[in-house]
Amino acid sequence: MRRRYLFIPFFFEKGAAQSFASKIKSTNLLRKTGFSHDLASESARTKEAQLSMQTSDFYYELPESLIAQYPALTRSASRLLCLNKNTGAMQHRQFSDLLELISPKDLLVFNNTRVIPARLLGQKTSGGKVEVLVERVLDEHGALTHIRANHPPKTGACLHLEKTVVARVIEKKGDLYQLEFEGDQSIFDLLEQEGHVPLPPYIHRSDEEDDQQRYQTVFAKHKGAVAAPTAGLHFDDAMMQAIASKGVQTAFVTLHVGAGTFLPVRVEDVTKHQMHSEWVDVSEDVCDAVAKTRARGGRVIAVGTTTVRSLESASSSGQIEPFRGDTDIFIYPGYEFKTVDAMVTNFHLPESTLMMLISAFSDRETILTTYQEAIRKRYRFYSYGDAMFIYE
């Protein structure tokens, strides 16, 4: 029997995890994106392929020793596995070699969201321990959060977090709790002062001072993410300058990555899977940059799956247009990419929606074969791990 690595965030209930593990073997993979996507226009062959997919089709076994617990000594010191998505040809390189693989005709698009120190520890008025993870800031004092406690807090309950933070439970909204933080400081200021870096659940250690810098991209700008757009972590200031000096154009979208990015597909029928929603902003400047890239015969290269989802969300009409709002786009094999030509991405969890996304960009067999080669070559996996460049 194969082992399954279920990397479950602290807010994922134990019972749900057990239910997921028992059901996952027979999961079907077929779901519309969060936009109006006309499945009737898909070919019969594509429909048949989609209907036959199961979540277990995207499984691979990974030695735990390859899950990076710390980043590389320097950002660009990571390795880079280059994959031709059409031929399956692979090259093993260093991340700094990406400069040789891009040209002045190309456009590199980054996600400039900024990770907030979203994790708070404390206790309820009753004395019971509580852990809070801010999922989305609503206003100066309100936020939607995940809460872990032996006994879930009731509406009106008061939570005493870290040294000075006091929050009151306003109401429960699905799996989330709406909290109102007391005092004059904004939530962002409170978190900067008292919060912990929200490291992913597969990093089995507490956050350290160095994580404040290394779990943040050098171009991070807009606060709101509770997980890093990890492909962007490999770029340091020197590399960004080298990209500019080469004449390669850059553009920036914003997608505030939520904790739901770590959730597995956990229903037997994936058409009933509730894809998590994230806030995205694709500006008119980005759309213009894409149009100019097309005109000069260059490639739109997305840095990270969050950037892929942003660009494709803005392209639901068939061509990219300014988009600002929530997206729950779910990209799986059979999806026709409208804007993205190549991508830089880290290695992803088995049976995750991100494995499905990169399998849609190449194909499932090629991706799984490439992952096996990465394991054989002992690449480092996940958020603090190595990267891939997938191109054609």
Task: Output the CATH topology of the largest domain.
Answer: QueA-like
Order of helices and strands: HHEEHEEEEEEEEHHEHEEHEHEEHHE
Strand arrangement in the largest pleated sheet: 2-1-17-16-14-3-12-13-15
| Quaternary structure of the protein | single chain
Category by helix and strand content? alpha/beta
Low-pLDDT residue spans: 1-49
Outline the biggest β-sheet.
Answer: 9 strands, mixed
- CA radius of gyration: 21 Å
- The CATH architecture term of the largest domain is 3-Layer(aba) Sandwich
What distance lies between the first and last C-alpha atoms, to the nearest angstrom? 36 Å
Q: Quick one: CATH superfamily of the largest domain?
A: QueA-like
Notes on the structure:
The protein is α/β, with parallel strands linked by helices and 392 residues long. It has 2 domains: 14-115 and 213-391, 3-Layer(aba) Sandwich (QueA-like); 119-194, Thrombin, subunit H (Beta Barrel), CATH 2.40.10. 22% of the residues lie in helices and 24% in strands. The chain has helices at 14-23, 44-52, 98-101, 187-194, 211-214, 237-245, 284-295, 305-313, 353-361, 364-376; strands spanning 79-84, 90-94, 107-111, 113-115, 119-124, 129-137, 142-149, 158-161, 165-173, 176-181, 222-225, 249-255, 278-282, 300-303, 323-327, 342-346, 387-391. The strands form 3 sheets. The protein has a 9-stranded mixed beta sheet with strand order 2-1-17-16-14-3-12-13-15, covered by helices on one side. β9 and β10 (176-181) form a beta hairpin. α9 crosses α10 (364-376). The protein starts with 13 loop residues before the first helix and ends with a strand. The model is unreliable at 1-49 (pLDDT under 50).
